[in-house]
Design goal:
2 helices
């Protein structure tokens, strides 16, 4: 009976651990206009840049058809495709939602109805924060 009880406890713990859901980014939730608030450099290049310190504004528009349009001082400077998927983060080697656009891949660190924070998926891990 003790063996059965131990098996049941172990099985319960294992199944509850394995069934923990991960938050998944809905590709529709990123579709919007995002205004750059600031960028924070990683460990190899510590800095903080804002529109005020950089002397320009920036926004990105993610469209429902998989395009991202980048504006600098309200002038379109790039129009390219984007992709959202799962992958490993370089900084922690864990699975994350990733977004790739303009030739770079980023970990989606935060995405809600007002905030988008992305972390460059490389050893420097520069963080960029956008607001709606």
């Amino acid at each position: 009976m003790k063996r059965f009880l131990l098996f049941f406890i172990a099985f319960s713990l294992f199944s509850s651990f394995c069934s923990t859901e991960k938050t998944t980014v809905n590709s529709d939730s990123i579709v919007n206009t995002w205004i750059w608030e600031k960028s924070i450099g990683g460990t190899n290049n510590p800095y903080t840049a804002t529109p005020k310190t950089s002397g320009y504004s920036k926004k990105v528009v993610f469209t429902p058809d998989g395009r991202v349009i980048t504006y600098k001082n309200n002038v379109e400077i790039r129009n390219s495709s984007y992709e959202i998927g799962k992958g490993l983060g370089v900084s922690d080697n864990l699975e994350h939602d990733l977004i790739t656009f303009e030739g770079k891949t980023y970990v989606i660190e935060k995405l809600d109805n007002q905030n988008l924070t992305i972390l460059s998926n490389n050893s420097d891990a520069t963080r960029t924060i956008y607001k709606r």
